[in-house]
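ok so i was messing around last nite and threw this chain in just to see what happens. nothing serious, just curious
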Amino acid sequence: MPAPSIIDILRHIAREEPLQGTVREFRGLTREHLGQLIEEAAQRLAGPPPAAAPSAVSPPEKAESPRAEPAVASSEPHPRLRIYSDGAARGNPGPAGAGAVLMDPTGNVVARLGRFLGTQTNNCAEYMGLLLGLKHAHALGAREVDVYADSELLIRQLGGRYQVKSATLKPLYEEARKLLKGFTKVKLHHVPRAQNAEADEMSNRAIDERM
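result:
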């Protein structure tokens, strides 16, 4: 295997490293801006891209959109995806974050998503994590999704086994149901927290880094 280039190393750092220490060191610098700076440096080193090359940066979304960290720079459609979603609230209610990780059927990570929610409850954060994943799956052209979450409440409410009594959760539940109906095939899976570690990491990073 050839040695990695400085461009490969810079892009790996921007995509995978937490970078909290650098963000703390320079006041006013966010992780998102730091990642952009590293990517810009990598692009300058690489030179101008070919005219027909697909972009590795997703088109801008609404201001409230989550931070997406594509693990694969590809324009290929993803007709079937696994969505691992999670939410975290420190204090319940307290500082909260939503997270989701999308994978293709072979287990390759397609995208990691995180969004800081301010002060919210844990159940609200769980729903927000799912909404992040569902919206991104739609954007990637998925027709079939397998949803994995460690929240029994969320999975059973969406599956019709539990009623949604919370006035706060009801609109989130309705939005999730609407998004799920946009897929031709949906499977809901309740999994142990250990099997949802990557989504849990994203929800906590969203809090730590104000993603």
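not much to say yet. Residues 49-64, 70-75 have pLDDT under 50 and may be disordered.
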